[in-house]
Amino acid sequence: MRIIIDAMGGDNAPGEIVKGALRAKKELGVELTLVGREEDIRACLGGENGVEIVDAREVVTMEDDPSTATRRKKDSSMTVALNLLRDGKGDAVVSAGSTGALLTGATLIVKRIKGIRRAAMAPVLPAGEHGIMLIDCGANVDCTPEYLLQFAYMGSFYAKKMMGCESPRVGLLNVGTEDTKGGELQHQAFALLKQAGDEGRINFVGNVEGTGVFAGAADVVVTDGFTGNVLLKGTEGAISFMMNALKGVFYKSTVNKLAAAVLKNDLKAMKKSMDVNEVGGTAFVGISKPVIKAHGSSKEAAFFAAIRQAVAFVNAGVVADIENNIEYMKLKAES
Amino acid sequence: MRIIIDAMGGDNAPGEIVKGALRAKKELGVELTLVGREEDIRACLGGENGVEIVDAREVVTMEDDPSTATRRKKDSSMTVALNLLRDGKGDAVVSAGSTGALLTGATLIVKRIKGIRRAAMAPVLPAGEHGIMLIDCGANVDCTPEYLLQFAYMGSFYAKKMMGCESPRVGLLNVGTEDTKGGELQHQAFALLKQAGDEGRINFVGNVEGTGVFAGAADVVVTDGFTGNVLLKGTEGAISFMMNALKGVFYKSTVNKLAAAVLKNDLKAMKKSMDVNEVGGTAFVGISKPVIKAHGSSKEAAFFAAIRQAVAFVNAGVVADIENNIEYMKLKAES
Fold first, then answer.
1. Which residues contact B156 (CB under 8 A, 6 or more apart)?
2. Is residue B266 less than 8 Å (CB to CB) from chain A?
3. Which long-range contacts (CB under 8 A, 24 or more apart) does A261-264 make?
4. What digits encode the pLDDT tens for the residues A231-290?
5. C-alpha to C-alpha distance for B72 and B95, rounded to whole angstroms
6. B115 CB contacts (<8 Å, ≥6 apart)?
7. What sections of chain B are H helices per DSSP?
8. What per-residue confidence (pLDDT) applies to A115?
């Protein structure tokens, strides 16, 4: 398997990106294509051989307009990497660059799976027995009921193959658990998901509240990208707020400091287990070939985890699952 | 000042409700009207005198349809309490009963402030320098840009008078901080809030992301009730998830248990400082007289805090602020 790496994307590129990639080569046995400024990449390789480098002179930055970046910067590492994937020169792309640019680029260059209306950003939260997929988390601010139906199917396939859920429980994010909760989008999506559940195609467990997400009320939480994005970032903020408060307690006095020192390793392990970056990157579900977004602040370990996820994604055949079921995922044109 | 208490609302009614009310009578010097089954209330009073009791035979429960409960149960403690407030027999209502029923009842019986399109549920999160108001958190699933403009003004007045913010920073909850982020609702609301900011009527600081909420990027975070509800409950769930993980660390070994025992009191204080119930109840902003919702699980301390908030709300004159500025809060009818 060959993984195409956008070596220039992210806050710590190319150094940490190349490090993570080389670790994946060694530990996972993947072949690498590193895309970016050749001289910069070579400087990071430390004489390592057997790595393909594809030169690309430009870099997509956070200042670039995400909707036009990959088109305007045709010689950027991101654009060139996506072109290589489209042309069959590798099995997956992993990038820590701009989320919006990568998503737009993946959609324009690699294209969506035929019949899929919108690709979704679907991170897996480190909670519950198998992790919890939140789909969508920001790719699509405005959603139709059909998008949400497709997210439900795609998330279900992903959870089954990638998260080890035998029969993934799919929930619709809402303001209450009763069937009638929410607005027009939720009412219509609920009806579609219920029908898919009744037909035995997904395991729909109904509406899930915000409190239910981390409590593991569902394995796949379906939502529009606006709400999902706010929820994801909001919980990230709340946890970070609490971590700071905790730090305040630990440093409050000498006695506290000593007690905290005893707990230090276990707390570190806990923090690590809750770190979304440790799970890997975020899959763009619905794109016709695997494109994985690593966190922008990725260092070696996080980027390695994202590549590991890309490998699993390729092996799992989630794209084929979606293609084989696309007829159930489309609304009939109104007669 | 006389506070009208729905003595039968909440999981711990009437016992803990009456206890919290009596504490408020003693410590805050308020007069009390306790509404509910007289014999049940008397049994909780322990011979305490100087408390008015208004008998009401029914109770609004969580099983009642919120949209019709106060109308159908005309002799419920909630309905009678709201009628007393409307008729000027007290200065505020405090209830730990069904949120939806109380909001509908307040809107139908006490009525909104003239010109206000929708009342909002606006809890104050225990973060930032003065707390952070999230408006709306579930009263209005579907919102128009005008609703959000009104939430911004109402939140701003509240934060100034109730939270001690000199010039409350008003932010619009969005998927990014750039001005152009979000969907149609956010684009239109942004333009209205920016205009109000440019005219010096509110201190609009632009878009705020989920991560920014707990980081204190704004004192008043404006959003539709769907997103606000998911965010509020989602962060509640995330914090509770983390608390459990923390407990796991503390109980992991005898050594850890000993270390945790040292930190116990400071951790308790931290937990308390982050407890939304300690701040008091949630104000229904936009209703013509103060109606405060206490948490359904309120015990004495939380219910006392909700009454304390009602007293502050009455004294602050937030309703008058809104009435005096209503002209700026309405969109001109399209010509």
1. B168, B170, B202, B203, B220
2. yes
3. A262/B255, A262/B256, A262/B258, A262/B259, A263/B249, A263/B250, A263/B256, A263/B259, A263/B260
4. 999 999 999 999 899 999 999 999 999 999 999 999 888 888 877 666 678 999 999 999
5. 18
6. B326, B327, B329, B330
7. 15-28, 38-45, 69-72, 77-86, 99-105, 145-162, 184-198, 210-214, 225-250, 254-273, 276-279, 300-316, 318-324
8. 96
Q: Look up tokens 């796949």; give the residue.
A: A220
Tell me if chain B has a CB within 8 Å of the CB of A189: no
List the one residue out of A8, A25, A11 whose CA is nearest residue A307: A25
Q: Give yes or no for residue B277 having a pLDDT over 70.
A: no
Model ipTM?
0.91
Which among A227, A178, A230 is positioned nearest to A207, based on CA atoms? A178
Contact A93, A74 (CB under 8 A): no
Residue pair B84/B52 in contact (Cβ under 8 Å)? The answer is: no
pLDDT in tens, B123-154: 999 888 899 999 999 889 999 999 999 999 99
pLDDT at B322 over 70: yes
What is the strand order of the sheet A220-222 is part of? Answer: A124-125, A132-135, A220-222, A169-173, A203-208
Q: What is the C-alpha end-to-end distance of chain A, expressed in Å? A: 46
- Report how far residue B148's alpha carbon sits from residue B118's, in angstroms, rounded to the nearest whole number: 10
Q: Is the pLDDT of residue B334 over 60?
A: no
The pLDDT of residue B335 is 41
Nearest chain A residue (CA) to B227 = A227
Q: Which residues of B touch A213 (CB under 8 A)?
A: 234, 237
Look at residue A335 in the predicted model and tell me its pLDDT: 41
When mean pLDDT is compared across A177-181, A271-275, B170-174, B268-272, the lowest value belongs to A271-275
Mapped to the 3 state alphabet, what secondary structure does chain A carry? CEEEEECCCCCCCCHHHHHHHHHHHHHHCCEEEEEECHHHHHHHHCCCCCCEEEECCECCCCCCCCCCHHHHCCCEHHHHHHHHHHCCCCCEEEECCCHHHHHHHHHHHHCECCCCCCCEEECEECCCCCCEEEECCCCCCCCCHHHHHHHHHHHHHHHHHHCCCCCCEEEEECCCCCCCCCCHHHHHHHHHHHHHHHCCCCEEEEEECHHHHHCCCCCEEECCHHHHHHHHHHHHHHHHHHHHHHHHHHCCCHHHHHHHHHHHHHHHHHHHHCCHHHHCCEEEECECCCEEECCCCCCHHHHHHHHHHHHHHHHHCHHHHHHHCHHHHCCCCCC
pLDDT of residue B127: 87
Contacts of A252 in chain B (CB under 8 A): 266
CA angle B64/B66/B68 to nearest 5° reads 85
Q: How many CB atoms lie within 10 A of CB A129?
A: 10
The per-residue pLDDT for range B49-108, each reduced to its tens digit, is 899 999 999 999 988 998 899 999 999 999 999 999 999 999 999 999 999 999 999 999
Q: How far is B299 from chain A (nearest CA, A)?
A: 21
State both tokens at B239: 């914090």
Pairing of strands B282-285, B120-122: antiparallel
Q: Is the pTM of this model over 0.80?
A: yes
pLDDT at position A334 over 70: no
B232 in contact with A, Cβ within 8 Å = yes
Q: How far is CA A247 from CA A244, B148, B239, B244, in A?
A: 5, 36, 15, 17
Interface size, chain A vs chain B, as Cβ–Cβ contacts under 8 Å? 154
Q: CA distances (Å), B182 to each of A110, A120, A139, A227, B202, in order? A: 25, 16, 11, 11, 21
Distance CA(A305)–CA(A318), nearest Å, equals 19
